[in-house]
Amino acid sequence: MRRLRGGTAAAVVLVVAVTGCKAETTTGSGGPQETGGGGAALTAAESLTVKGRAPKTGYSRERFGTAWADTDSNSCDTRDDILKRDLDEVRFTGGRCKVSYGVLESDPYSGKKVTYRRGRSLVDIDHVVALSDAWQKGAKYWDAGKRIALANDPLNLIAVDASTNRAKGDGDTATWLPPNKAYRCTYVAAQVAVKKKYQLWVTAAEKAAMEKVLRTCPGQKLPAGGNPTDAPARFHAG
Q1: Which residue numbers in the chain have pLDDT < 70?
Q2: Which domain covers residue 93, as residue numbers?
Q3: Residue 220: half-sphere exposure toward Cβ, Cα within 13 Å
């Protein structure tokens, strides 16, 4: 079973070990499960707190901890966890953590097929809610544990085409949407889910843009799951 990029999630993963070789292959992918009845995403968007964007002063990636921290303590870093979840035809090197190869059959943002090879940056792991955007909408005032949790929460992460993702920058819904129009409802619902889970606010323009998209898909459900909103205690000194 593989995750349908338009929304439904499948959590079944089939792992096939290649005997006598370091490489392993995984087919299928899981991801954040959708929850709530039809319209849950729009209802959640309507409930988000509206405030102005705070200054970006003081922001740096390091304020959200070391990149791809193993906050779920599974001995694999977060980047590889998401690659394993989102890619098809996954192969590993040196065990079952480091993903060496995989395929995005249909990149959520562009709709095109993208091949991942370790060391060649054709696939990014995107923060659906960009960290600098989060900083300006509440995260500036959090402690280290909550910021690290957001940066490594699977609910806020997705494997996507690198070039398309870099065009996004730190845009919110008011300033950037995926070129793949078929994915926009799912994408906006994910942003809403993250902002609601972490109690981040939105600007008036952002909220209006979210509601405009979600009114085109009034039955859109709300993604759920991911990690706790506070990283383990060992990360709190960050």
Answers
A1: 1-38, 237-238
A2: 14-227
A3: 30
